[in-house]
Specification:
The chain is mainly alpha-helical. 51% of the residues lie in helices and 0% in strands. The chain is globular.
Length: 81
């Protein structure tokens, strides 16, 4: 019997984000989401319900907390002036 693939937790998505940034440091923001989903799928996760908004939220959280550098520059224009 074929078992279902598990849904990724936020930690799994964060690890996929870090892996994409390590393997493809010059990835464009437009390609970033599909690259993160590709990594998750290769690790055996079901990504059908993983939204771009969720991935960006986790990326932003990790960048704000200083757990990773904001390589994509999404925090530059956060309106904090």
């Amino acid at each position: 019997m074929h078992s279902k693939r598990p849904y990724p937790h936020n930690k799994d998505i964060a690890q996929a984000i870090l892996r994409v940034m390590r393997e493809k440091p010059y990835v464009k923001p437009i390609d970033f989401i599909s690259e993160v989903k590709r990594v998750l799928e290769n690790e055996g996760y079901y990504t059908g319900l993983v939204s771009a908004r969720r991935i960006w939220r986790i990326y932003e959280e990790y960048a704000r907390r200083g757990w990773m550098y904001d390589y994509l520059g999404v925090m530059e224009n956060d309106g904090g002036e």
